[in-house]
């Protein structure tokens, strides 16, 4: 896990996805039409990237209950899974029942998953996640979504690019072009890791 502190994240995330190529506008339109997070995403040319428990639905939680564990993810103490009540989000989670959370009162908290997929040269990557801002919790500032290969940060996006309004989720997208990644010090074959 990273020891860097990126500030507080006042919100939840859901439906995390990573693609090993740039998405076309048609791909993005089709993804917006999906009602639930797939667990294995197959793209053209037989490219597949698996994220375990991408929608944080592996645990069945009653409304307005939470746990500090996230199945298949590595998380620090002030993070976990919650089934948010409608008082947090009028329409609740964007898919399923649960979302992951990071406590805003504690800095340096992270949620991460090391993937079976490894970094490959000459390949583009697109990582997406729905990030939300609770109705009454204030601004969801300070969050970052990062993609690593081994210990090398490939790229990140934050609330500076994707800032959901109160009571809503937005799709945060990190696109890393193969040409730009060619200058990276990442080693082909290193495991990819998603971190919030």
Task: Outline the structure in words.
It contains two helices and 13 strands; from the N terminus they run E-H-E-E-E-E-E-E-E-E-E-E-E-H-E. Strand 2 and strand 3 (47-50) form a beta hairpin. The protein is globular, with a radius of gyration of 16 Å. The protein has 196 residues and is mainly beta. The chain has helices spanning 25-33, 178-181, and strands at residues 12-19, 40-43, 47-50, 65-67, 74-75, 79-83, 99-102, 111-118, 125-133, 144-149, 152-158, 168-176, 191-195. 7% of the residues lie in helices and 38% in strands. The model is unreliable at 41-46 (pLDDT under 50). The chain has a six-stranded antiparallel beta sheet. The longest helix has 9 residues, at 25-33.
Largest sheet: 6 strands, antiparallel
Secondary structure: number of strands? 13
Proportion in β-strands: 35-45%
What percent of the residues sit in helical stretches (DSSP H or I)? under 10%
Biggest β-sheet: strands ordered side by side in the sheet? 4-6-7-1-9-12
Determine the N-to-C terminus distance.
Answer: 10 Å
Compressed to H and E, one letter per element, the order equals: EHEEEEEEEEEEEHE
Shape: globular
Q: Give Rg in angstroms.
A: 16 Å
Task: Give me the number of helical elements.
Answer: 2
Query: Runs with pLDDT <50, length 5+?
Result: 41-46
- By secondary-structure content and strand pairing, the structural class works out as mainly beta
User: What's the pLDDT, averaged over the residues?
Assistant: 82
């Amino acid at each position: 896990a990273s020891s860097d502190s990126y500030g507080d994240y006042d919100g939840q995330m859901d439906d995390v996805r990573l693609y090993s190529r740039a998405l076309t506008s048609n791909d993005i339109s089709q993804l917006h039409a999906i009602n639930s997070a797939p667990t294995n995403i197959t793209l053209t040319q037989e490219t597949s990237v698996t994220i375990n428990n991408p929608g944080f639905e592996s645990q069945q939680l009653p409304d307005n209950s939470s746990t500090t564990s996230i199945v298949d993810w590595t998380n620090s103490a002030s993070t976990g899974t919650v089934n948010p009540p409608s008082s947090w989000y009028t329409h609740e989670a964007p898919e399923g029942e649960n979302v992951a959370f990071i406590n805003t009162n504690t800095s340096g908290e992270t949620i991460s998953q090391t993937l079976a997929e490894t970094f490959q040269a000459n390949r583009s990557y697109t990582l997406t996640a729905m990030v939300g801002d609770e109705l009454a919790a204030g601004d969801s500032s300070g969050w970052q979504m990062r993609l690593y290969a081994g210990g090398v940060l490939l790229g990140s996006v934050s609330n500076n690019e994707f800032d959901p309004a109160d009571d809503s989720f937005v799709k945060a997208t990190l696109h890393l072009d193969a040409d730009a990644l060619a200058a990276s010090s990442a080693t082909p074959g290193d495991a990819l890791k998603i971190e919030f």
